[in-house]
Amino acid sequence: METHVLGFPRIGVNRELKTALERYWKGAISETELLAVGDELKKRHWRVQQESGLSLVATGDFSFYDQVLDTIAMLGAIPERFGRNDGNGNLVAYFHMARGNVIENTPAMEMTKWFDSNYHYIVPEFTPSLSIHLASEKIIEETRHAISLGYRPKPVLLGPITFLCLGKEYDGAKRWDKLDDITTVYCEVIRKLAPLCDWVQIDEPILCTDLPEVASSVFIPTYQTLKAAAGSSKLLLATYFGELRENLNLALESGCDGLHIDLAQGKGQLNMVLGQIPDTMWLSLGIVAGRNIWKTDLRSSLDLLQSVEKRIGRDRLMIASSCSLLHVPVDLSHETELDQEVKNWLAFAVQKCDEIKILYDVFAGDNRDRELLENYEALQSHRNNPKVYRKEVRQRVASLASDMLYRRSPYADRGREREKWLKLPLFPTTTIGSFPQTREIRSTRLKFKRGQIDSKQYEDFLKSEIRAAVKRQEKLGLDVLVHGEPERNDMVEYFGQQLDGFCFTRNGWVQSYGNRCVKPPVIIGDVSRPEPMTVKWITYAQSLTDKPVKGMLTGPVTILCWSFVRDDLPRSEVCQQIALAIRDEVLDLEKAGISIIQIDEAAFREGLPLRKNDHDTYLRWAVDCFRLTVSGVSDRTQIHTHMCYSEFNTIVNWIAEMDADVISIESSRSKMELLEAFKEFEYPREIGPGVYDIHSPRIPTVEEIKDLLKAALQVIPPHSLWINPDCGLKTRDWVEALPSLRNLITAAKQLRTEYSSDNP
Ligand SMILES: CN1c2c(nc(N)[nH]c2=O)NC[C@@H]1CNc1ccc(C(=O)N[C@@H](CCC(=O)N[C@@H](CCC(=O)N[C@@H](CCC(=O)O)C(=O)O)C(=O)O)C(=O)O)cc1
Ligand SMILES: N[C@@H](CCS)C(=O)O
Ligand SMILES: [Zn+2]
């Protein structure tokens, strides 16, 4: 038997990687110093896995930005605009791909959501001239390094089929034409890894989705080629984030020596796999959930292990995490301020490694009765805690009436009165909500948290930030203003902190992309809103200006998706509870005189199940929860929503069903590609496709912005077009945000002039 995790979080328990990256980008540390931080983190994480007693340690899972970008570097699949650098150890080219090159004005590669998670990967670009060759031996070097330190490594590669499926084709390129070259490089890498290790893990999460036909047809031959390169080293085909369903045969006939299945998000597949797995194939059971932070139910996991043993014996079994632990925080023992009872319900990456080992020990016949009893008691304490079940919340959800899902009038009617009221120009300009979270804002919040300043001082500081934000926007000439969100640490955590039913970690950071991390709140019980959460700040901003200030809220689906959610209640029901809480806030904002309210549903698309068959069920309850949130307002109130990284094509009709008056969407990195969706489906509302890529430090030019707007105008009627950045500006500095917004306003003004003279 073997025990292992599919990957370990790389950010570091104190976000050491984030700090080092930011210092390196600023020029405060050298490349050598950055590499040393990486080495230290790798060593630390290998040590954790070994000290837990796992039989294998993952190598190649560390990355300075993203594992897909590392694969791009390994294959030399570097787009021409970054020069002919081979990416091997060349961190400069590597970071240009991730973040753009400010000096040469080269845009970054696109970034999008990793399956249905809040992790983001860099999207491979396939062009006809792309030449694939082994360009980086990082994984081989890392594996040798682990061996030199006495570890038993299991290198982790992103599989070629998933890599190809996740990329995008440009200039008429056909991705599958690259398969042979890519397979050749993978063979070269596997051949070099084979003498170093017993197992090589190849991740093909794409097998848990509806696979394109061509991918199915090339899967088995590709893997047979890879297996031939592996020689006596064993290949573990890792699947996760769902069930294999109709792709099971591909996995079983791949020639791989082992198959890993996700039993957290794909428990239903176990019987089918057990019924069909060949006698020679190892089975890695992903029992310990890699996407949530609840303790594993060890007793029921042991029952499962025993039932598996009865069917296929124990010699070919591996006990594992369901997926990489990238999606959970590093170490619970650092949570010194968490309520002890709640803490006892949780397990982070380090603790999950321990759980795997306990399962192994008990299964192997060792006595771990104390740990089993503690685990049982912890689960009971969660179930029986009075905060978990709250009668008044359950009753409110039970008494929901269907008329609570409808605005008073249909869209066409409710706009008329509002137009007179809001007096917005053609192509109204706005931003998405947040302004730069400057060092001063973050450190003042920290001082408040540590009790070094009192609430009056903190509130005065936030008000001065809001005043400055309003002044800046008036000076820029924006039409619809925002208060800038200086009071928010994060758009989900901030709301979670004010809602009953949530709890928080102090240090539970999870990587979202590159250097950016989130601290997802934990939903432990029924959710309700004890008091207004944003009204004070929005009304303060509105009191400073005659222009409309948008109320800014995070929507229920996004709060759900970006939290660790209790697993004893359907997600749809938890979402309804959150929707009711946010509905109360919407109505309070309206009562306080706010005429435009934006409800961010940045994670709406992310929550979409990976299989088409499961889409409609999710979309129905997710759309209804959004409608429940906003439908109480009068016709005069304009409802906005905002979404990031949206590949909408198949769900535009559902987005229209949300019945928001205006939607703003990320689109600049993908060069307005999302508009394809609107060509076929005439979206009956107003739209602000993003024209400024806020994830890059680059300042977009007026011409660039106008080009994007003109592309948008091919599809969106002028009276429906809003002008805004892709997303909030919290990750930018003012030195980048101000000139970018100036260019955005100039582009809007020029377009207005062109349109009024073209269309008198
Ligand atoms: C919009 N996006 C978001 C996603 N998910 C979220 N939960 N939130 C989002 O906004 N997903 C999709 C996109 C892109 N993803 C992200 C994710 C994260 C960020 C981001 O900016 N993260 C910040 C951390 C934010 C935060 O919680 N900050 C806290 C703590 C600040 C801190 O680190 N304090 C230091 C000391 C500071 C000092 O003295 O200078 C400390 O405590 O030691 C806060 O502000 O209070 C990040 O930097 O990673 C953006 C997009
Ligand atoms: N209002 C939020 C949305 C981010 S998705 C912001 O501007 O940061
Ligand atoms: Zn956004």
Q: How many E strands? A: 22
Give the mean pLDDT. 95
- The CATH architecture classification of the largest domain is Alpha-Beta Barrel
Helix/strand/pairing category: alpha/beta
Shape: globular
Bin the strand percentage.
Answer: 5-15%
Number of domains: 2
- Main sheet overview: 8 strands, parallel
How many distinct helices? 27
Describe this structure in words.
There is one protein chain. The protein is of the alpha/beta class and 760 residues long. The protein folds into two domains: 2-383, TIM Barrel (Alpha-Beta Barrel); 391-754, TIM Barrel (Alpha-Beta Barrel). The chain is 42% helix and 12% strand. Strand 21 (662-665), helix 25 and strand 22 (686-689) form a beta-alpha-beta unit. The longest helix has 25 residues, at 734-758. The mean pLDDT is 95. Bound molecules: ligand LYWDKB7T, 2-amino-4-mercapto-butyric acid and zinc ion. 2-amino-4-mercapto-butyric acid (HCS) is lined by residues 432-434, 491, 552, 600, 602, 642, 644, 727-728, 730.
